[in-house]
Amino acid sequence: MSSSLELLERLGLQPFRPRPPWWGPDLQTLRDTLRPDVLPERTSTRLELALGPSSQGRGGSLLAWLDPPAADAGCGRPMALVLVLHGLGGSSEAEGVRRLGWCLNRAGFAVLRLNMRGAGQGRELASGTYAARCSSDLAPALEQARQLAAGQSLLAVGLSLGGTVLLNAVLDGVAALDGLALVSSPLDLAHCSATISSPRNRLYERWLLGRLRQQTLNDRPQPGEELAERLSRVASIRAFDDLITAPRWGYSSVEDYYQQASPLPRLLAPELAKQASLPPTLVVQALDDPWVPADAALTLALGPPLEVVLSPGGGHNGFHAPGGCWSDQLVRCWLEQRLGSSVC
């Protein structure tokens, strides 16, 4: 925890404190669903980022929304472009994605909110579904994002599984980022799958499965009757990954998928190899996260290029504090520091 406090002090931030009445990990996790923030209307540019061939089919596009800096941000041009990626069952319209985007827009960043394959309004643009390691999809999208950055820095933030996807893309060598932040992101998929299937998380898992089933049933072409019937009987995230995710992405089994798509083993690889592949990377993790166990983050060796902030509270992608979302402010300040800014 001392290293976390040192980083917060360097950024001029206080440790996380919960905002009443959102006490405890579950209320922190559910707050965006129970009481979403009222965000200003934005003028966003719709973009379709072309995909190359993959195991999910040929062609297609990923839908993204480009949000310019806020009018009162006080900058003539964006400080940098930040790609923001949603989590499992989410989309570019998710509450946490939009709120983080607005926080960054107010600081002078342009934000690219990307939908993974099969997510949100991009459902019609590409068949199939995404996975924790879908670097073949991310490669062309990130290349086009680099072009959109127009010579400025390209940064990225992943919320929950979105962070896992981005981290895997970096480790696979398909993402040349100038900085990467992960908030509540799974690093050990097998452990996370077992945790979300625990009795205390039964309602969470049921909610997630409902979203994943609907995404799959909305596929084009639609799943056949046999697959749809088997999908209706899936009762866990692990069973969904065994039926849908692993075979669609070419893994021999769900165990193979969890092993190959978990970033933790590669993060624990020798320091030289890690430095060669990772940009400056921030990991933000709550010790009381009910979905993503903190064990993986606790095993990470600290030091450049990896920085870890462990918070006693915050739930899963919650961090609702008296002044707003604490993790949004942390990510903003950390990204500004990457650019040499002294705004924080």
Can you walk me through this structure?
With 344 residues, this protein is of the alpha/beta class. Helices cover 41% and strands 15% of the residues. It has a single domain (2-188, 264-338), classed as 3-Layer(aba) Sandwich (Rossmann fold). It has helices at residues 2-11, 24-34, 95-106, 135-149, 161-171, 189-196, 202-217, 225-232, 237-248, 254-261, 264-267, 271-277, 295-299, 326-338, and strands at 45-50, 61-67, 81-85, 110-114, 154-159, 179-183, 281-286, 306-311, 320-321, 324-325. The strands form 2 sheets. The protein has an 8-stranded mixed β-sheet with strand order 1-2-4-3-5-6-7-8, sandwiched between helices. The protein has a two-stranded antiparallel sheet with strand order 9-10. α4 (135-149) crosses α5. The longest helix is centred in the middle third of the chain and has 16 residues, at 202-217. The protein is globular, with a radius of gyration of 19 Å. The relative contact order is 0.17. The model has no long low-confidence stretch (mean pLDDT 93).
CATH architecture: 3-Layer(aba) Sandwich
Strand coverage percent: 5-15%
Through-space gap between termini: 22 Å
- Strands across the major sheet, in which order? 1-2-4-3-5-6-7-8
Residue runs with pLDDT of under 50 for 5 or more positions: none
Structural class: alpha/beta
Question: What is the helical fraction, as a range of percent?
Answer: 40-55%
* Overall geometric form: globular
Determine the CATH superfamily. Alpha/Beta hydrolase fold, catalytic domain
Sequence of secondary-structure elements: HHEEEHEHEHEHHHHHHHEHEEEH
Q: How many alpha or pi helices?
A: 14
* Overall pLDDT score: 93
Largest sheet: 8 strands, mixed
Query: What count of structural domains?
Result: 1
Number of strands: 10
Name of the level-1 CATH class: Alpha Beta
CATH topology: Rossmann fold
Q: Any idea what the radius of gyration is?
A: 19 Å
